[in-house]
Amino acid sequence: MSTKITVALLFGGPSSEHSISCATAGGVLAAIDRDRFDVIPIGITRDGAFTLEDDDPAKFALDATALPTVDDNGTRILWPQSMLSRELAVTLADGTVRVLGDVDVVFPILHGPYGEDGTVQGMLELLGLPYVGSGVLASSLGMDKHFTKTVLRAAGIAVAPWITVQGREWNESADAVRERAGALGLPVFVKPARAGSSVGVSRVDDWAGLDRAMTIALAEDSKVLIEAGVVGREVECAVLGGRPGQPARASVAGEIVVSGRDFYDFDAKYLGAPGIDLVCPAELTEAELAEMQELSVRAFEAIDGAGLARVDFFLTADGFVINELNTMPGFTPISMFPKCWLASGLSYPELITELLDVALARADVFRGAVPAPVPSSVAE
Fold first, then answer.
1. Alpha helices, DSSP H only, in 61-209?
2. Helix, strand, or coil here: 372?
3. Structure pTM?
């Protein structure tokens, strides 16, 4: 009988970040410790069908000329029917049913709506399945840039100035929106409130370009942020949530050096477009790094994060300003999150193992398999 831990790897999904999720799956499938973990790859098609996928890293390699996708192969995953079971099965394309066995933990490496926003997390909660990453509330907050900023500002953490615009508001009173946006000054960045990987993001250097930027952003979401451009170095910190009773910790910092592009867009992040250098570790003083790490953990805790996050900053003349917080950051082997942990002494395979172990430890406490740690101040 196998003593390995069975991991259901969830990837793909209906969002515009489908292919990036697939590329992340390829990286995880190639690097996960096969001596400790068995993997059930579950691909979600763009139409939202849960399929049993091939356990083949090469199939989901990041290729700029042909981005990986989950194609509908006719299989359908059958989830447990209650919290009393963890058994997964699959209906094959010919209609026969095959039992896949019990799942110990789910790794939802999904980006964007219908995956990173609390929806899949809610499904897994209802099924009683442990999973990697933040829960429903933190995932929802982290996905919505307006509410992330609102919570961080309430926690006393500096964020970039912004206004939030509903699609209806723009359609009915665009002139009023332009007037509000004018108070931010130029340049501004126009972003879908609930999208990632810089999808739908535009930089506006002249107000004549605002209409086009709004059209692009509203194609991704019905709610859009217009954000003041902040002058400063773009630096990022990776955060790992602790086991029950232990604090979260932050990595060394990475820096995005923009030399030949308007900003760190999708093509630069994933398709090898020139004009961007990722530097890790970033050149910071000890005091700057310590402050950045402390702010990263504070931000993570402010949204009640768990598992992992990446916190993006501008280092300005007046100090650090948080730009965004991502609860399921880019996780391909070339992404900044694993790069920061590699520079902090944690390899990509070790990082995957740590995330799974933390998720299992949190689940054991939740189920009462082990007692919850008592804070030292209470114990004393």
1. 119-127, 136-143, 145-154, 167-172, 174-182
2. coil
3. 0.89
Q: Are 106 and 10 in contact (CB under 8 A)?
A: yes
Per domain, the residue ranges of the chain are: 5-131, 141-157+231-359, 162-228
* Length of the chain, in residues: 380
> d(Cα 319, Cα 291) in Å, to the nearest integer?
10
141-157+231-359 folds as D-amino Acid Aminotransferase; Chain A, domain 1 (3.30.470)
- Phi, psi values for residue 95, rounded to 5°: 95, -10
Cα(275)–Cα(259) distance, integer angstroms: 5
Q: Give, rounded to a whole angstrom, the gap between the first and last alpha carbons of the chain.
A: 44
Tens-place pLDDT, residues 14-54:
998 899 999 999 999 999 999 999 999 999 999 999 999 99
The architecture in CATH of the region 162-228 reads 2-Layer Sandwich (3.30)
CA distances from 284 to 54, 219, 236, 281 (A): 43, 38, 12, 9
Euclidean distance between CA atoms 46 and 338, whole angstroms: 26
Q: CA-to-CA distance for 255 and 233, rounded, in angstroms?
A: 7
- How is residue 228 written in tokens? 């003041």
Number of H helices, E strands in the chain: 12, 16
pLDDT in tens, 255-281: 999 876 565 555 555 555 556 888 999
Q: How far is it, in rounded angstroms, from Cα 371 to Cα 358?
A: 15
C-alpha separations of 97 from 90, 94, 174 in Å:
6, 9, 54
The Cα 316–Cα 293 span in angstroms is 16
| CA pair distance 149, 162, nearest whole angstrom | 9
In a 10 Å sphere around its CB, with 0-12 CB exposed, 13-18 middle and 19+ buried, how is residue 171 labelled? exposed
CATH of domain 5-131: 3.40.50.20
DSSP lists the bridge partners of residue 346 as none
Interatomic CA distance for residues 366 and 372, integer angstroms: 8
